[in-house]
Amino acid sequence: QLQLVESGGGLVQPGGSLRLSCAGSGLTLDTYVVGWFRQAPGKEREGVICISSSGNSINYRDSVKGRFTISRDNAKNTVYLQMNSLKPEDTAVYYCAADRRPTVQAMCDSLFYPDYWGQGTQVTVSS
Fold first, then answer.
1. Please, are residues 47 and 60 in contact by the beta-carbon 8 Å criterion?
2. Which residues, in sequence order, are CB contacts of 62 under 8 Å at separation 6+?
3. Would you state the pLDDT for residue 2?
4. Which strand ranges, in their side-by-side order, compose the sheet holding 68-73?
5. 19 and 7 Cβ atoms separated by less than 8 Å
6. Hey, which of 20, 35, 82, 111 would disulfide with 106, CB 3.0 to 4.6 Å?
7. Hey, which residues does 28 pair with through a beta bridge?
8. Any bridge partners for residue 40, and if so which?
9. 64-75 pLDDT per residue, tens
10. Distance of CA 105 to the CA centre of its chain
11. Could you say which DSSP state residue 109 is in?
């Protein structure tokens, strides 16, 4: 079965850090564009940060620049989202997604609906 498996969410205080993982099962992630999306209660899902298959191109949402980074560990077939300086407004369910077809910008601008999605992991930033 082809799927993405996320882990690493939780409750963190403002200013804290979390690292989310997205592991491919049946998918070789270094041949896919991979993106992280989030959806807060009552809001639409939005692209947060996306990485090309080579890792050479990354697209960010402005609100996370300087705080969030994305990286690949091809040996582990995993993509990571490192989130630092977390704010209450970062609270959401975070999803990873993968597809071979789009550019990183198209994926992160939600102009393209990826074929594969993870189950989502809750991130709550609160004191």
1. no
2. none
3. 87
4. 3-7, 18-25, 78-83, 68-73
5. no
6. 111
7. none
8. none
9. 999 999 999 999
10. 14
11. T
Return the closest-CA partner of residue 45 out of 125, 126, 117.
117
The single residue listed with the structure tokens 């809750």 is 122
What's the chain's average pLDDT? 95
What number is the average pLDDT over the span 72-87?
97
Contacts of 65 (CB under 8 A, 6+ apart): none
**H/E stretch holding 107:** helix 104-108
Query: Angle at Cα 1 formed by Cα 49 and Cα 35, nearest 5°?
Result: 5
Task: State the SS3 of 64-87.
Answer: HCCCEEEEEEHHHCEEEEEECCCC
The two three-digit tokens of residue 39, written as one number: 């959806």
Q: How far is CA 55 from CA 21, 42, 52, 66, 73, in A?
A: 16, 33, 5, 18, 10
The H or E element containing residue 47 is: strand 46-51
Nearest-angstrom CA–CA distance, 31 and 53: 5
First to last CA, the chain: 39
